[in-house]
C-alpha cells in the first residue's frame, strides 16, 4: 500500500475503524459464547474459535486507531466492501500486496486466520513492524516498471510461459509478469482473499501492479479447494490498473465496485486451455 493517507475527516475514519474492529471482536466473542463448533471459509471447515493472542491483536488495533491521527488509504465504504467478505469467511487465508498503517486493521479483521503482507520496501517493513510486531510481512523485489506496462502486455501475448494454458508463477523466469521470487508459503497456500493495494504505481520507475494482478489471477485459476478466490484491486481509476484488471481478472468476474475499489470473484479454471478473459 502506498505510504500516503487521506487527510480529510481523519477523526471520523478513525472512529469508523474502531467500530468495525469492535464489531469483529464482538462477533468472535459471540461465536465462542455459543460454542459454535465450526466456522466455514469458502465451504471448507476450519477449527473452532478460541480465545488467544488474536484477541490481543484486535484490542491493539482498536487502541491504535482510536488514538492515531494517521488514517487508512482506502475510504470507509471501500474498507467496508472487503470487511463484509472477511467477516463472512474468517478465519481464512488473506494475502495483501502492500504494508501500511492500515495493515493492523486488515489483520484484525481475520482473527485466527492467516494474513500475510507483501511489501517492496524493506525499510518500510521495519518501520511498520516496529509499531505492530504481531503482523507478518515479507519483502518482495519486483522486476517490472510502470513505464513498461504496454510492452509487458505484448510480452505476455508472445511468451508461451505467460500463457493461460501454462498458468504457473513459481520458478517462471521466462514470464516477466510472474512473481517468481516469493517465499514458498505464498505458493504453497491457497488464498481465499487477495488484496492488491501495492506496489507503487504512480510514477514511471515505480514497479506498478502489473505483476501482482497477473499473479493473483494465476493463483485464483489454480485453486483446488472448493469455492472462489476473492480479489480486490484498488486505484482502478488509473489506466494500468484498469487495463490489467480487464486483461486478467475479467469484467465477467467483477461483482461490485465501490469508489476506486473493484471486487472480483474468480473461480478455478475448469478448462486451462481457455484464455484469462
Describe this structure in words.
This protein has 277 residues and is an alpha/beta fold. The chain has a single domain (10-266), classed as Vaccinia Virus protein VP39 (Rossmann fold, 3-Layer(aba) Sandwich), CATH 3.40.50. It is built from nine helices and nine strands. A seven-stranded mixed sheet has the order 5-4-3-6-7-9-8, with helices on both faces. Strands 1-2 form a two-stranded antiparallel ribbon. Strand 3, helix 4 and strand 4 (114-119) form a beta-alpha-beta unit. Helix 1 (10-33) runs antiparallel to helix 2. The relative contact order is 0.13.
Mean pLDDT: 83
Fold-level CATH name: Rossmann fold
The H-level CATH homologous superfamily, spelled out, is Vaccinia Virus protein VP39
Query: Are there runs of 5+ residues with pLDDT below 50, and where?
Result: 4-8, 26-52
Residues in β-strands, percent: 5-15%
Tell me how many strands there are: 9
Q: What's the overall geometry?
A: globular
Based on CA atoms alone, the radius of gyration comes out at: 18 Å
CATH class: Alpha Beta
Estimate the helix proportion, in percent: 25-40%
Order of helices and strands: HEEHHEHEHEHHEHEHEE
- Per CATH, the architecture is 3-Layer(aba) Sandwich
Distance between the termini: 26 Å
Number of helices: 9
Structural class: alpha/beta
Main location: Golgi
Transmembrane segments: 12-31
Organism: Olea europaea subsp. europaea
Keywords: Membrane, Methyltransferase, Transferase, Transmembrane, Transmembrane helix
